Amino acid sequence: MMTESQGRVVEVLGLPDGVDDELLTLYFENKRRSGGGPLHSVEKSEDRALLVFEEAEAAARVLSKEHHVVHNVELSVRKPASKDPCRFLLKGINPSTCIEMIELYVENLLNVNVPEYTLLPSTDNKLILIQLSQPLAQGRLLFRIYIFL
């Protein structure tokens, strides 16, 4: 998502089955009910949606309102997670995998050397956050993942 729209974006979680884009739009554009205002776009996927408001103030009002109910279901609203080009998360790791194996995997996958990244494992060792010293060149990660698949 473009940087200029970040303050205007709200993520909606827990959408009930059958709720359509038009109902979401009408609810979140209704200032009296949701606190919102005119929407620029609605992207719905399964039980969540990303709303981009025309004004950041409308998004802030929606986020500050405690309860949002559609189809008798209480929705959860939040700011979307930020995308950090210097951080990647490895999931589904066997906790007994040695750190050297993970380092080799990361170095081969991202084509980086030891001083260019740091590995930060979760307490249960099932997740590892990769912190890069600088962002990868655009498209480099996707190309490398494609090769390894």
TrEMBL record:
Listed InterPro entries: Nucleotide-bd_a/b_plait_sf, PAR10_RRM1_2, RBD_domain_sf
> Where on the tree of life does the source sit, at the highest rank?
Eukaryota
Q: Name one GO molecular function term.
A: nucleic acid binding
> Which SUPFAM superfamilies does this chain map to?
RNA-binding domain, RBD (SSF54928)
The name on file for this protein is RRM domain-containing protein
Which taxonomic lineage is given here? Eukaryota, Metazoa, Chordata, Craniata, Vertebrata
Species whose genome carries this gene: Neogobius melanostomus
